[in-house]
User: What shape does this take?
Amino acid sequence: MLNHYDHVLYPGHPLAQAHPDRLATIATLFGMTPPDVSRCRVLELGCGDGTNLVSVALGLPESECIGIDLGAAGIARGWNMVQELGLKNVTLRHVDILQAGPELDEFDFIVAHGIYSWVSEPVRDKILAICEEKLAANGVAYISYNAYPGAHLRDMVREMMRYHVSEFTDAQQRVDQARALVQFLAEEARSDSAVYRTILQTELERIVNFRDSSLYHDDLADHSAPVYFYEFAAHAKKHHLQYLSEAHFFEIQAGIFPPHVADVLNRISDSRTAKEQYLDFLKCRRFRQTLLCHEERQLDDTPRPQTTERFHIASPIHPQGPEADPRSSHATRFVGPKNSSVETDNPLIRAALIELGIAWPRAIGFCDLLTAAQRAINENPKPDTYQAADRQRLADVLLRAYAGGLVEFHVRPPHFALRPGIYPIASPLARLQSRMGPEVTTLRHCSIVLDDVVGRHLLQLLDGTRDRRALVDTLARIVESGAAPWPGEVTSNDGDELREYFAAHLEHKLKVFADLALLKA
Assistant: This one.
């Protein structure tokens, strides 16, 4: 029998926050010795069409990835993708989670994204039972779920939508009518409290940006079981699992609040679970991406700065304003992702941040970054005493930058080409996806949108068989055939002019692909 996910396919996407590299990085920060990422075994419960696992398998060719899902249509689509890409380290199974277990071996990492809050209680318990029984001794499990108190606001609007669409059976009608209702309420609602309309408008913004499939399966689903964090932690404890962290390290930081808030939290309780729950109250958190490990693992309560020395670091960080001089004594503000920022007047830290920005998207090992920063500010080697002080200073700043979402840490950085070769090769997954639409997966295990139709055709041509001349000629023939739009800069229908245009712009296009981590090394 077809289930809802067969009627409305849920498009897969890579989960950067659940990649083995991320899970191992967080585990290392808290004092664990996680399994070798390059040769890991990964299980994804509710894998959909397997896009996340396919991306993991491509980047970690010596890994073994297994996904299970109840949706037959998604598994069939995923198998077609696996076979077309020729992958031997991915297995997708059409299995009910309640029936899974006996045939499964041990796994280093277990991922359950977008399931826990949308299934019945027996399935929720089975998810954690699988983690208890099948997770390796030093393994990490990732489970996402809707969280209270923030989910109360979502629940309120969800219940209104489900009431409104209860008479509709067609999936598209249900989605369209749900959006129309929230639009109507957000515009016309009246209340003595301005809070009500603000909530409706906030939910409308979320729903408008949702894919149809996400709205259908997430908000209009039969099951909805958000939980308070302490409830989830208690459920995990019943299965001898303990809280490790959130997949996004910055989510567990109290630094967004004034110092006295952290002081109050520390006085309320010494328990990590309690502190996390009070942070949820303060943030009105509505969604969590929680990492678990076995309860017998000894964890560091607070990550140590020296642990940073084990990682590779990457960041698109850049100085605000004019180009910064590493030797300057003036304070420089650096801007990172999502407008996060840090200011420093320390020459060593300034030089290290400049180096990271120049190297992006490449990740740099801690020792290499330290050496590059020292050379930038002083050509003469420093005595060992200064070296140790520099290591400590850089490690401390980088850990705080990671906590603030300014930099990335990797135990195994992604592998991709920084420059296009003579015969450029793009990620085979991205080439395949670009035939179906604008959203593709990079070799950094994240999704990007390529709106440029000609650019998508170019990406499909990068299979390692064409040099620059062949790429220009083939692109021109694609445009001349009408399969792609004529560039606006080419004002005539002259084929020679078209080829001259592509010859002049090809290198830039290839460099953009390299910067987006779309080219294989």
Observations:
- The longest strand covers residues 135-146.
